[in-house]
């Protein structure tokens, strides 16, 4: 018989980008356990801060738990932080680090130009197609997976410039794959523009997205220089991760 800990890990493994939300009935069916057992496991994981409770008896992986897991088990995080801080230092603007979780962009960390942490009490979630970082991360997904994401949660816009149709998103993702970076031209927040590029692992896989953002007028004045800086620091960090001796230094 499986222990409670083993069952809890089975529950956690159910939460994926394509299936980010689960309820007790669905968990019970997938794990073939009584619904009361599934509900008790979910409640325990909420109490431990691993899961967040949603309305209507549903649950999702907790954002703060993800941050803890990243700090504890992802060797790429120091390289990502270095790139983020270096970008903020060289550009004189805010830089950010994000991943996609549960179909939304999860902002992990940010740093202001002065090197101070971004003032946020909890990671912010936005639809990925509304931001440069989210679009960079979606480029790593096969298009059928993106289509399933759209079918499940739609394409909600945050501003008048947000992408809100599948065709527009598919065209934009292809453009980003070809050039290696993405823009957010007031698509997430009015008056703010952003450029993002991927951090890649040893096999070329996309691990996270790093960005620099600024008020629109200032962004247009400096975007060519910031694009060069962004690509330089992301490339350096990615090459570091591809070199075991450097990654362990």
TrEMBL record:
Top-level taxon: Bacteria
GO MF term set: DNA binding; DNA-binding transcription factor activity
Domain IclR-ED: 62-249
Alphabetically ordered keywords of this record: DNA-binding, Transcription, Transcription regulation
InterPro entries: GAF-like_dom_sf, HTH_MetabolicPath_Reg, Tscrpt_reg_IclR_C, Tscrpt_reg_IclR_N, WH-like_DNA-bd_sf, WH_DNA-bd_sf
This protein's record includes keyword Transcription: yes
Pfam families assigned: HTH_IclR, IclR_C
Gene Ontology terms describing biological process: negative regulation of DNA-templated transcription
Domain HTH iclR-type: 2-63
Family annotation (PANTHER family): HELIX-TURN-HELIX TRANSCRIPTIONAL REGULATOR, ICLR FAMILY, TRANSCRIPTIONAL REGULATOR ICLR
Full protein name: IclR family transcriptional regulator
């Amino acid at each position: 018989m499986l222990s409670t800990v083993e069952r809890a890990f089975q529950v956690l493994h159910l939460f994926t980008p394509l299936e980010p939300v689960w309820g007790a009935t669905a968990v019970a069916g997938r794990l073939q356990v009584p619904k009361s057992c599934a509900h008790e496991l979910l409640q325990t994981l909420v109490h431990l801060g691993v899961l967040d409770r949603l309305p209507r008896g549903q649950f999702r992986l907790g954002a703060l738990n993800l941050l803890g897991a990243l700090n504890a088990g992802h060797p790429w995080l120091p390289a990502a932080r270095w790139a983020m801080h270096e970008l903020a230092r060289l550009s004189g603007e805010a830089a950010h680090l994000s991943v996609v979780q549960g179909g939304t962009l999860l902002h992990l960390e940010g740093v202001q130009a002065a090197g101070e942490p971004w003032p946020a009490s909890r990671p912010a979630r936005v639809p990925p197609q509304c931001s440069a970082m989210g679009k960079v991360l979606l480029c790593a997904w096969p298009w059928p997976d993106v289509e399933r994401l759209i079918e499940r949660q739609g394409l909600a816009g945050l501003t008048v410039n947000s992408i809100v149709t599948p065709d527009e998103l598919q065209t934009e993702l292809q453009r980003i794959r070809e050039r290696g970076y993405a823009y957010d031209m007031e698509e997430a927040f009015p008056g703010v523009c952003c450029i993002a590029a991927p951090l890649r692992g040893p096999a070329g896989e996309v691990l996270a997205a790093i960005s620099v953002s600024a008020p629109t007028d200032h962004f247009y004045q400096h975007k060519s220089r910031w694009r060069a800086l962004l690509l330089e620091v992301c490339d350096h960090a990615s090459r570091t991760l591809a070199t075991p001796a450097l990654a362990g230094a």
